[in-house]
Amino acid sequence: MATLQFKGKNIIWNHHMSVPYHTLDLDEKLSYKQDKADGNLIVEGDNLPALKSLLPQYTGKIKCIYIDPPYNTGKEGWVYNDNVNSPLIKEWIGKEIAQDDLTRHDKWLSMMTPRLKLLRELLSDDGVIYISIDENESYHLRILMNEIFGEENFITEITIQRSKNGLGSKEGYSTCLDYILCYKRRAETNAFTGLEPDEDYIKRYNKEDEYGLYKVDGLFRKKGAGQRRKDSPGCFYPLYKRDDGSIQLEYDANLREIYPKLPNGDDGRWIWSKEFAKDKIYRLVCGAEETVYVKDYYSEDRRIKPKNLFSDNKYLTEVATEEIKDIFGKKLFDTPKPTQLIKDIVSNATKGDAIILDAFAGSGTTAQAVLELNEEDGGNRKFILIQMPENSEKEPNKNITRDITRERVIKVIEKKLKNKDIGFEYKRVGQPIDAETILSGQLPTYKQLAKYVYYLATGQSPKDKDIDEKKYLAGKVDHTEVYLLYTPDMEELKKMAITFEWAKEISKGNDNKKIVYAPACFMDDEYLEQFNIKFVSIPYNLFEREK
Questions:
Q1: 542 domain residue, yes or no
Q2: Are strands 533-537 and 212-219 parallel, antiparallel or unpaired?
Q3: Does residue 370 sit within a domain?
Q4: Same domain assignment for residues 36 and 168
Q5: Buried-most residue among 81, 226, 518, 540 (CB within 10 A)?
Q6: Given 256, 280, 297, which residue is the final one in a domain?
Q7: What are phi and psi of 257, to 5 degrees?
Q8: Number of structural domains, the chain?
Q9: Range of the domain at 407
Q10: Which residues, in sequence order, are bridge partners of residue 62?
Q11: Which tens digit of pLDDT belongs to each residue from 291-324?
Q12: Are residues 325 and 410 in the same domain?
């Protein structure tokens, strides 16, 4: 497999592992109908620490991810801001990426890599990730995705006509296309559900018999490779045409006998064996020139496979611009995505319950798509949006997350949905949970830290009901129990340690492996082994993942 080399790759390839977890702090004032949130979440902050901080609760639980990152055109004004401990990277921080920047591709790939790695961890085994992009980085992104997600997990590249008239010019060609790269988490899974058929699709089923609506779908004679009689002798047999065009298998000297013949007169073959055709004979019909066709019957639960060319007017950028004007009364972004685009890709990947994540949320189109889809098909999808405020020295009060993303979701619920009994939680990326922060006295709550250590120990998300602060239990899985000796009080925390008495108490009639996170341990290795305890020092060894 081809690999991609870029400046900074060896530095940032595992950078996501060193990014500290942060608290995600609830803002009740900016939350909306919080008691009706039911999993819907907006996160304000840099998406790199935000994604890392979602891991303890959402690892392997996100069914569909959609992201619309900067296209790196050199005109977007995006700035590299990842705090990577390297002289090379530190030279990049805080500088706007311009079109004539000879390292703009390196910087973009260095920004995307740790985020894609975290997104992969969040994706469920049957999950799908969609990434909007244009020709500036589509080639590089495809190779990078092959390295991170695996070439075998590539699904398709969707081509979208986003403009009828063209949006720019390259060597005499007016550009009008966007692309969406689509990958799934695991090659062996079936990740797609298909789309609900629309009215135009249903209208194609313009015939009806006792079995229901149908359309004549295709030839019963095999075409293309393997079409000859000798390729499948069991699929060569006579059919008998009745006066009404229906077909029977039983011999009748009074009926027209039909064999599968190739255009050159040679023997061909049918697509089904005679044995299989016995139960499906009602689906065969004879048309003009003794040609046999297969009836395709419509069913209520039918889902259709969309083509990877989206050229309908509903996918145009101007449609998305009008959507935002309709909500806010003015244009807010140059290249917004139309809601129908997100609805169609999300609908093809999810049905019923599912969590959809957008880590470059912008105006919140993904949330609108999720909410409208639920209303249309009765689903119970949840959205997670991550968006930076994008404030600066020039605009210290700017906050896209609060003033645009959040506001759009509220307006959609209040003005566009029949069911208005829907809400969301609004959280901010808070303080890091690392040694320096803890030693400075900025302490997370017990539950916040318990979720992190459980994830570190097991790679899984804990169940809230399994966290028992009184017993210092962070959770359990299989034959492993995870304990956290901790309290968000610095003076009390200094006194806490694993003692012989405590270890003996939790080990009564209990042979399970015990991973204990604690500030100190007053037992030697022999006793720890006796009680099947592994001691992990906090805060210094807090982020060493179990292998």
A1: no
A2: unpaired
A3: yes
A4: yes
A5: 518
A6: 297
A7: -95, 130
A8: 3
A9: 9-192+304-432
A10: 123
A11: 999 999 998 778 888 899 999 999 999 999 999 9
A12: yes
Q: Report strand pairing: 41-44 vs 425-432.
A: parallel
Report how far apart, in Å, the C-alpha atoms of 364 and of each of 359, 370, 412, 438 are: 10, 10, 10, 34
Please give the Cα distance from 55 to 138 (Å, whole number): 27
Domain membership of residue 1 (yes or no) is no
Considering 432, 460, 476, which residue would you say is the last residue of a domain? 432
Phi and psi for 235 in degrees, rounded to 5? -105, 15
Do 352 and 259 fall within a single domain? no
365 and 507 assigned to the same domain: no
Residues 443 and 523 in one domain: yes
Residues making up the chain, counted from first to last: 547
pLDDT in tens, 386-436: 999 998 888 899 999 999 999 999 999 999 999 999 999 999 999 999 888
Buried b (16+ CB within 10 A) or exposed e, 187-221: eeeebbeebbbeeeeeeebeeeeeeebbeeeebbb
Predicted pLDDT of residue 187: 83
DSSP 403: I
Q: How many CB atoms lie within 10 A of CB 480?
A: 16
Q: Coil, helix or strand for 190?
A: coil
Q: What is the pLDDT of residues 96-120, one digit of tens each?
A: 899 899 999 999 999 999 999 999 9
Distance (Å, rounded) from C-alpha 389 to C-alpha 403? 9
Whose structure tokens read 């027209």?
A: 256
